[in-house]
């Protein structure tokens, strides 16, 4: 994760960060209490969002609603690069409901 804008970088109300996932990387199943918007710049992924799965690539956008379990699986051959935005106070939760708080790249 590379943070572009956040409260700790000057008081932004929304955070913006870049995700660079290596080929085959599998993110954890988790949730947020706020909407996130993901835009893929390069590569591809499968997004598990609630009960649905979406195959995405460069130029695609996925809006991930609050309180919807999600996991992003990077394409095995290319990985992916995406830019994401969410409210600066967005809190992460584990699949079992355990609160992890505000991730460092959002704070």
Describe the structure concisely for a colleague.
The protein has no helices and 10 strands. The protein has 107 residues and is an all-beta fold.
SSE arrangement:
Elements: E1 2-5, E2 14-21, E3 30-32, E4 36-49, E5 52-57, E6 61-64, E7 70-74, E8 80-87, E9 92-94, E10 99-101
How would you characterize this protein structure?
This protein has 107 residues and is an all-beta fold. It has a single domain (2-87), classed as Sandwich (Jelly Rolls). Helix content is 0%, strand content 54%. The protein has no helices and 10 strands. The chain has strands at residues 2-5, 14-21, 30-32, 36-49, 52-57, 61-64, 70-74, 80-87, 92-94, 99-101. Strands 1, 2, 4, 5, 6, 7 and 8 form a 7-stranded antiparallel beta sheet that branches. A hairpin with a 4-residue loop joins strand 9 (92-94) and strand 10 (99-101). The model has no long low-confidence stretch (mean pLDDT 95).
Which key features would you list for this structure?
107 residues; mainly beta; Jelly Rolls; seven-stranded antiparallel sheet; three-stranded antiparallel sheet; 54% strand; globular
Q: How many individual β-strands?
A: 10
CATH superfamily: Jelly Rolls
- Please give the CATH architecture: Sandwich
Percent strand = over 45%
Count of helix runs: 0
Contiguous uncertain segments of 5+ residues = none
- The overall pLDDT average reads 95
Find the structural class using helix and strand composition: mainly beta
Radius of gyration: 13 Å
Order of helices and strands: EEEEEEEEEE
- Principal-axis shape equals globular
């Amino acid at each position: 994760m590379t943070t572009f804008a956040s409260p700790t970088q000057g008081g932004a109300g929304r955070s913006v960060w870049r995700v660079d996932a290596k080929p085959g990387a599998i993110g954890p199943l988790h949730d947020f209490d706020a909407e996130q918007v993901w835009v893929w710049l390069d590569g591809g992924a499968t997004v598990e969002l609630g009960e649905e799965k979406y195959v995405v690539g460069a130029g695609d956008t996925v809006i991930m609603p609050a309180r919807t379990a999600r996991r992003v699986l990077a394409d095995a051959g290319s990985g992916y690069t995406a830019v994401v935005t969410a409210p600066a106070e967005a809190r992460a939760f584990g699949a079992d409901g355990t609160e992890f708080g505000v991730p460092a790249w959002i704070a």
